[in-house]
Design brief:
Layout (H helix, E strand, L loop, with lengths): L29 E10 L8 E3 L5 H7 L6 E4 L8 E10 L3 E8 L3 H12 L4 E14 L7 E15 L8 E8 L16 H12 L8 H5 L2 E5 L9 E4 L1 E4 L2 E4 L1 H13 L6 H22 L11 H24 L15 H17 L1
Parallel strand pairs: 2-7, 3-7
Antiparallel strand pairs: 1-5, 1-8, 3-4, 4-5, 6-7, 8-9, 9-10, 11-12
Helix pairs in contact: 5-6, 7-8
């Protein structure tokens, strides 16, 4: 271990300060956390440092097995286990790790404190496989770890290395059960975001981020005041009301299925669950047999997606030119109908082949 700290008394508290709507019985859950786990070539006060590349072997061996655990203050008890490694990499300057978080309340309390900035330090627990010791006159010997076995990572109040800490705490937005637009309502993510931003802006021109968040499926909880923290939009403003757009839901499902945003697997599972609820609402309320792309009936969904994308070629530009709650007449459609028909045919063929 590079640092063994005394376990502080836990002062956990419920997550009860979220101002956006939760479904009955639902709680806000932090799904994962990304940390700067250890710096390279940074010497501690007593002459210890870790060389770049020291974790290459253990990343290959330990991370796929999720064998590196996230602990509270180097406490190895089951109760103090907060989560498990899902992804790790060595950059030029740091060991970076992403950990799936437990949904139990003690872990969520600690994640809340990390999200709020009360916990900022992290400490790496290692087994030393290879090292180099260099004697120095008038100083501690330089103790350089060249190969290390990564045993655990801890959130703590004080760490040996100064340049460590929380990069981000990730969360999936609780299911909002927004009303649905018509199935053929045009969708363009950029235009929808602009309208949602206007809808969520207060009289003092400040953006109400909890209100803004309701239009998105995922957000970076450590940066709640940045527009770029909110990903996977599914809603637009229609007649002054925030409504979920089926085409936006389909686009989000495609992105989640392909993991275009590189999200942790535990976030993807929660996203798929929320999207499944929206697809169920579409089937029930709009009378359309459409399934999420990860379901057994995905071929029906792919065909619907192809048709949706074809229609969007001529409708999205109109939707962004005239706000959805505007009474102004739409612009005339333009473009080569022959090319559009050919593209529609290709999309249908791709859906059948997929």
């Amino acid at each position: 271990m590079l640092l063994q700290t005394r376990e502080p008394e836990r002062l956990g508290y419920p997550i009860d300060d979220m101002s956006f709507a939760l479904m009955p019985g639902e709680k806000h859950v932090f799904k994962s956390i990304t940390l700067k786990c250890a710096p390279f070539e940074q010497e501690t006060k007593d002459g210890r440092l870790i060389r770049s590349g020291a974790f290459a072997k253990t990343i290959r061996e330990q991370v796929p097995k999720r064998a590196v655990k996230l602990q509270d203050s180097h406490d190895w008890s089951c109760a103090a286990t907060l989560g498990s490694i899902t992804k790790a990499e060595e950059t030029k300057t740091h060991l970076i790790g992403t950990f799936a978080l437990s949904s139990d309340q003690p872990t969520q309390n600690i994640a809340t404190k990390a999200h709020e900035g009360h916990i900022t330090q992290t400490s790496v627990g290692i087994g030393i496989v290879e090292r180099v010791v260099q004697e120095r006159k008038g100083k501690f010997p330089l103790f350089a770890v060249t190969v290390a076995r990564w045993i655990e990572q801890s959130l703590c109040m004080e760490a040996s290395f100064a340049d460590t800490g929380v990069i981000s705490v990730h969360s999936v937005t609780p299911f909002q059960a927004l009303p649905l637009t018509a199935l053929d309502h045009a969708w363009n993510a950029q235009g929808a975001e602009a309208r949602v931003r206007g809808w969520a802006t207060q009289r003092n021109d400040e953006l109400n981020f909890p209100r803004y968040q309701q239009a998105f499926l995922w957000w970076d909880a450590t940066r709640p005041d940045l527009i770029g923290s909110y990903q996977l939009p599914v809603a637009d403003i229609v007649n002054g009301q925030l409504q979920a757009v089926p085409r936006g839901i389909i686009a989000a499902a495609q992105a989640v299925n392909a993991n275009d945003h590189g999200l942790p697997e535990q976030d993807l599972a929660a996203l798929r669950q929320n999207l499944d609820r929206y697809f169920a609402a579409i089937r029930q309320n709009l009378g359309v047999m459409i399934m999420a792309p990860w379901d057994a009936g995905a071929e029906t969904t792919r065909a619907s997606m192809a048709e949706t994308q074809t229609k969007d070629l001529t409708q999205d530009q109109e939707a962004d030119t005239v706000p959805t709650d505007s009474a102004a007449p739409p612009r005339a459609r333009t473009g080569d109908d022959t090319k559009r028909r050919a593209l529609a045919l290709r999309l249908r063929q791709q859906a059948q082949e997929g």
